[in-house]
Every structure is written in structure tokens, then in C-alpha cells.
Fold each of these.
Amino acid sequence: MIEIGHVARSHGLRGEVVGGVKAGGEERGAPATPLFTDGGPLVVRSSRGARKDADRQRWIVHFDAVGSREAADALRGKVLRAEPLDDPDTLWAHEVVGSEVVLRSDNQVVGSCVAVVANPAADLLELDTGALVPAVFVVDRQPGRVIIDPPEGLFDL
């Protein structure tokens, strides 16, 4: 399971919640989509976009088993998780953390990815060397290996 968002607060009186959804999580708002919390599964009844913040889209969601404001309030702060989507063009943090990062030009290993840092312009691969590489420079990936094509000088200090 991957984290796709969280419940921020209740909305209205009939059980809707406002939730923040990370980039790439918008597909999870379709009716009958299962989402998971530490408290168990929730099934989306309906959803609609509310507004976009720096790194999250705000959505208003109504879950099947949530019919009152009190039930919606009980979900405040819950992390929403889902199965990863099978999209070869999407770069998922769980697929790159732990991978060696190499330059396309000469196959030089520049480090190992230890985290993916959310950033409004582009997510950043944090390397074990302390370097940050914008994800837009990722050109290919294989199991355990991420290939980048950064501009000259990115790793010069």
C-alpha cells in the first residue's frame, strides 16, 4: 500500500470529508474505489475537487459507511492508502528508494536514493550523498537502478 492522502476535516452534516490527495492520487476518487486507513477500509461513494494547494489537491469525499458529521469527524487525521496503480510512466517513491542513481551519459553511480522529497516544482530524489535531484531528470528506471540525465554541474559544489 502507498500513502495517497489524508482526511483533513469533516465537511457539512452528511458525512463528507475534506481530504488532501497527493499528486497522482486523483484517480482514487471514483465511486466504489477502496481506500485503506489504520482503522480499516473505506469505500468511496462520491468525490469532487475542491482546490489545489502546493503539493496536494483538496477533495471533498463521501465514503459509503460514513453518514454523519460525527462519523466524518472521527476520520480527521487518518492517512489514506491504496494499492499502487500499474502505470509505467509514474515514478513511485517505494520503487526508487534504495535504488542506485546513475548518470545516463557514462553510467557513473552518483549515489543511492534514500528518500523522495515533495516539492511544488518537482519531487526531489534525496541521495545518500546529500544531493537532491529533481525527478524531472529521471529518464529510465530498472529494478534497483534509476537513470538520470541532469544538466552539467548539478553535482558540483
Amino acid sequence: MRALAAPLAFAAVVLAACGPSPGPTQIGPPDAPGPSVPELAAGEVTDDGITLAVTAEPAVVSAGEAIEVEAVLTHDRREPLTLVGSGSGIVFFSVTRLEDGLTSGSPGWRLDCRQHILPAGEPTVVPFSKSGGIDSEDPNAEFRERFFADPELTLPPGTWRIDITTGGTTQIQECGGPALGLELSLVVTVTE
């Protein structure tokens, strides 16, 4: 058996040294699809036993098509977890086009103080929502007006970063305590 292995290895080296190959060999039918496009963008971050997981689907979309974004909060405690934060919620979203900085701006929230209960062993689903303000002097004002007027997340062509951040604290005796600090970003591509 050893006597056959050496000539086969030698033949492989000789064939490899004979020159460039004629190109990639297609496996499968000639009409097989090319590289697959990711169906969704996803990310997850955990701090102090609390996890924020976010998906954006599809990851590549045509201009005018809606992008579905969903955040899910979970925790590892055996009892429900109480967070204190804005009555606007505890998960906030914004978008920025990477090519030129066109942005929805920082998310906005009310300054009231409210408890948010995250059940033990169950995910808390937070759908995408829009918040923020418009200043007529802002170069992004026209985009922001269209952005906030549309109930869905539709974006003009470009590569977009969706920023997701949490507000609130686990210190239930005070609003404005140390923030959760869960933040992540997803990137989606919008084509013509």
C-alpha cells in the first residue's frame, strides 16, 4: 500500500506544477444560482445576565420594500426582572446610511419614569419603532420627515446601519440609575 501512495502524491504535485487550471469547475446544473444573499442580519449582546438579540429581515432589500426589525430581551434570573426607564420603552432604534451619514438622528424618549417587567424564562419581544425629532435647520430634515411619516422601515438605496440601544436601569428605586448598556448595530443593504 505504501508503494502506491508515493507515486500518487508525486503525480498530484506534477499536475499542480503544470500550469494554471482552466478555471473553476462548476458543480451542479449550469443554471445553479450564484452565491446566496443573506436572508437576515442578526446580532446579540449580553450584560449582567440580560440579553438583547435583534434581527433585520431581509438583509438585502430593494428601495421601497419594508425591512422587518425585531428586538428580543431575555434574562437569566429565576424571577421576573423589573427595569425602570422611560414610559416610551426600553429599546430604541435609529438608522444611518454609511456612505454619507444620512440619519434618522438619535432616538427620543419621554422623561417620565416607569417600571418594565421582563418575565422569567420568556422572551420580551420589542418591534421596531421610530422616535426622534426634526429640526428645520438640520441637513437631514427632509429625510427625517419622510422617515417618520412612514409607519414601516423603508429606506433609500445605500448601506444602512441600524443602531439598537436600551434605556433604563435595574435599580428600581431610581430613574436615571446606571443604564443597562446593551447596544448593537446591524447592517442592511438597500438596492435601487
Amino acid sequence: MSAIAIVHPSDLLGKELRQTIEHRARQWREVRLLSTLESEVGGLTEVAGAAALVTRYEPESLRGASTIYFSGPIAANRPLFADVPSGAIAVVLSPDATADDGEPVVAGVNTEAARPGMILVSPHPAVVLLAHLLHPLRELGVEEVVATVVQPASMAGNPGIEELFEQTRQFVAMTGRRPTEVFGAQLSFNLLPTTADALPFSATLGKVLGGGPRISVQVLQGSVFHSLSASVHVRLTGNPGAQAVRKALAANPCVEVASRPRQLGPIDAAAHEKVLLGAIRKDEGGGVWLWAVMDNLTRGGALNAIEIVEGLQ
């Protein structure tokens, strides 16, 4: 039995993490909810069906904790890494964390890179999604990858969801549009660039995959509430057929072939624990196009973090 600490637990990912721990991580005697953010401190929430209070983080707050999850923005977490007890497992779920903050790990892809006592990073969900698609294809000889990932409003937390909902309401009601604080422009019924493109996705993917081909990644902001979508072009050695690609991907236990691949959309992945694989088609240039969706909070967030820890226990 051990203590688990969740730092900055009140955002959407922190909530998903608490719920997943309740069902997956039974070997704990205590879950501590901690925060350095005034907006969170004193907040009442629940763990395992019981009321729980988010307490103020102090340097000694992590003492005796064997597993520590850092949710929330990376800027709020970086100053706390020095307080992690020796030998504890620390996993960072901040979507804006990079390989400079710790060792990026995608469970089932490079789990062997994780060690107790290290700061481990559960990377941006786009990295998790692409890693699960590219890792099974390495035996087919991946030469080049170009990917466009569309992320949902929930990547911006509750404020992002609330702003998208309000924009949609205003649009349907044909009322005056208010200034947007989260996305900076109308996202409802629209598609926008995103500041996530400033993150080193290609470098992080390369580290997770252990090197490999040239990878170019673009991340756009979509107007769906949950789940990522990815359109991926992969050039493979020997130009194998779509059936060989589908077989390789289906062998990944974290990937599920959709029952209706040509009608697959991000809504189908909401609350789903796997990457859902849609249509695969060859192009005239000798590569293949993949279409896949994944819930950013489950497989792309809480499940990946918890499975990293499970792999060390």
C-alpha cells in the first residue's frame, strides 16, 4: 500500500486521472490532492466516491508518496520537480511539457525508458497518437512521415469547452459575438492554427521511437469538444500494400480497427481507451494515408500516465 499525490488535480485531465486511478490503481492507502494555484487551493472534489479537499502545496507535501502525477501547466510544475522524493515515480501530464522537462514515455512503445527516480513525461496527446501508429510500422521500414493532427477544444481545459459552447450558442441564436479569450477568434464551425505547433513534436516523437525517419507534424485547433483526429502520410520501404499496414497496426493492443472506418470521426473516440484506426489507402506516390482518432483525456492522457507507472511496479 502506498500514497499517491496528484499535483494540480482540478483540470479536465486531473479529473480523468482521479477517475482512472479509482478503477485501475487499487494499491494505495492515500491520495493527496495538492496545488500551488490559488484558484484550486481549498476546492472540494472527490476521490473514490469520497469528498476530498485540494490542499496548498508545501515543499514537504510529497514526503512518503511513492507515485506523483503532475497535471496542469508545465510552468506551475517545473519548480516542484526538485521536491520529488528519491526513488519515487513522477509522471508529468502537462501537454506543454517537452523532453527538456523529463523522459517522454508512451506506454507500450518505449516503456523500457522509464525508471523510478526519473521525471517522466506523458507527452502531448498528438505524440501519443502518432507513436501508437508509427511504432508498429517500423518493421515495414518507415522512411518519411507527414502528419496533420486536429486537436479538440478540451485541450484548453474547461475554459476552452465553455468558450466553444458559448460561441456555438451565439452563432445558432444569431446574437452578437463576444471577444474570445481562449482561442482569440471564432472557433465554432471553424478551424484555426494553434500555438501547440511551437512544441517540438518531431523531436519528442523521435525520442519516443528511438530515432528513425523524418517526421513533420502540424497541429490545428478544431471545433470539436473532445478527441484528436490525425491524417498521416507514411512512406514505407518496399511499398507494402494497405492490407500489410492494417495487419501491422491491428497487432498493437492499443489500436482498434474501427467497424465503420470510412465513417470514423473524433466523436467515436470520446471516452474510448484505444486509438481507433479508420481508412487506409495507398497513394500514387508510393506511400499510404492513415486516418485515426483518439480521446485526448483517456488514452492520450490519464491511461498513458497510469500505464507508465504500472510498468514500473
Amino acid sequence: MEIIDAYIKGLKVVTGDCFHDKRGHFVETFNLKKLGDNDIDLSIYQENQAFSFKGAIRGLHYQIHPFAQAKLVRAIFGEIIDVAVDIRKNSPTFGKYFKILLTGDNNKQLWIPEGFAHCALTKSEFSIMAYYTNNRYSEEHSRIINYNDPDINIDWGVDEFIVSEKDSSAPLLKELDLEDLL
């Protein structure tokens, strides 16, 4: 398992070792010791899975304390553009984003600690995404930032999206109460 730091402090790209033989392949996607040895502290509370069609976008989601969540995200099938936006108030990279292509074939995962908003866009005809969280979902503590916020200016590489009403009407980062940021 290879774990490297992304250019925004705290984010990490995790690539599982893949072993091929005549039956197919095997990938180790989670190893608590190896993650812990690389400063990824993930006590799994919940696992989520989403099936999405091409152009479907989910996010930018996060939760505030005491239910802030860290996530370890991967694509089981298909291709997703996975994005994390730094919303740590005192961070030198506040409002900046990191983007990575996660596929069912590249064995990459994105470690997103608390303090980041998360969004995923399906690039392929459909995708299956899964992610572990370290805390439970709490509707009361759930927050959203608009995925098309011009100040964040994420280069999605597509013009048409399938978006929920909740996500499409989300506020911009500058419109949020700073107490809602981590």
C-alpha cells in the first residue's frame, strides 16, 4: 500500500497493492496499521456506498462538530472526479481544492480528514463509490457548499450535471457563517 501526501496538508492519496493472476485481481483497500503508520487515524463508524449516473454530482458536503467526519473514499466501479475543499478557517489553503480521478481500476483512494468539504462527480456511464467515515451522519450538523462556487472555481471538465435540489441551491463559501466552518 502506497500512501502519499497531497499538496493540501492533511489530504493523502492511498493506492492499494494489486495482485493479478488468471482468476482476476486482488486489492488490499484497507489496512488499519498501514494507514495509522501514515498518520491516518480512521476508527470506522459507518460505510456508505453510492451508485451514480454519468454527470451526477454529490456535494460539496461536510458536517460540523461534534459530528465532523473524516472519510476514506474510493471508486469500486467506473470513474469519479473526487474533490476535497479546505474549509479550515485558519489554514493557509482555506478555500483551495484538491482533485483526483478515482476509478475501479486505479486502486486509488482519497483520505479526507475533518475540515474539508467533499464532492464527487461521475465521469463514466455510471459509478459505484464507497467511503468509510469516522462519525455518524447527522442531518442537524450536515452542511453544503455550492459545487459551482466561483470563488473555489473547481475545474470539473464538464458543463452538464445531474444535481439534487439540495446541492444545487447550496450557499457559496463566502455566504456561510464562519462558525459552520471547521
